[in-house]
Amino acid sequence: MPQDFRCDCPFTSALDILGDKWMLVIVKQMLVEGKETFKDFTESDEAIATNILSTKLKLLEEVGIIIKTKRPGNKKTNLYLLTDMGLALTPILVELATWSDSHLRGLNPSIVEGEAMESMRRDKAAFASALEQNYRAKLASMVYE
Amino acid sequence: MPQDFRCDCPFTSALDILGDKWMLVIVKQMLVEGKETFKDFTESDEAIATNILSTKLKLLEEVGIIIKTKRPGNKKTNLYLLTDMGLALTPILVELATWSDSHLRGLNPSIVEGEAMESMRRDKAAFASALEQNYRAKLASMVYE
DNA sequence: AATTTAGCTTTCAAATTGCAAGTAAAAACA
DNA sequence: TGTTTTTACTTGCAATTTGAAAGCTAAATT
User: Closest nt to A80 (CA→C1')?
Assistant: First the structure.
């Protein structure tokens, strides 16, 4: 079941894949919070139900945003990792967070503040790039362990 | 009914508002396609149902992304216009389209190609800025007519 | 005055989301 | 080596959301 697209619009087509409450949240958890396993995701602040998690992980894999793998020697724990296609979502996530930072604090006063937010405000592109490089470094280190 | 937020994460909070198939599509139609009236939206490529459109327009207004108004002298046709908060979504839309352009053509080969896409690729920030300025110019011209 | 248009609302069916419980296999423990 | 725990799910079912189609009201046009 690949996916259905509403039309030929590039904006809309992205939302045909990413436009729901969970797809980008899962990507964020991987990129920003370092979550890798099914268990990791179930323990998140956002409290995703396991059946939804299962469905969304399958969809993310089908589309090519993540890959499912295992650590050598471990036959039980699945690892979900971002592909290049998935890492390319970083700028979208950073723009979403930036918009929240400047326009959503009135509606959700609990939105976090701190050094990371300040760093993001100071230089969005550098912040996005750092997130991505950090994740790539982790991927590289996994291969040789 | 303002809105419920899942947690204090700025990424997730943006998706609590924008994370569905329609909210950002409606904003795109206003920003990129110049749609303003209920009728305009119903005639879009994406073919939104009128009940959903009605619900989403109300939500967009409640959140503060759009305002509902009328042209002076016309008591029938409602105009929906982007606020500053709504216009601030432009970079998110441009990042979504950019991602589609580089990663979704395999899954949706019908995604449009053309001068606008090339211009977006050439300079994303300038493209976003042009979209926003273009919309602001339209807003300014409406006031004096 | 009659018709058309714009902007919805209502009804109901279908799809999606989500809670809670259950299962199977691997791994850790005694 | 047998028992318990952990991980990664699936299943059943209720609740919510989405969507197609029809209907309705008031303004504008003919």
Answer: D8
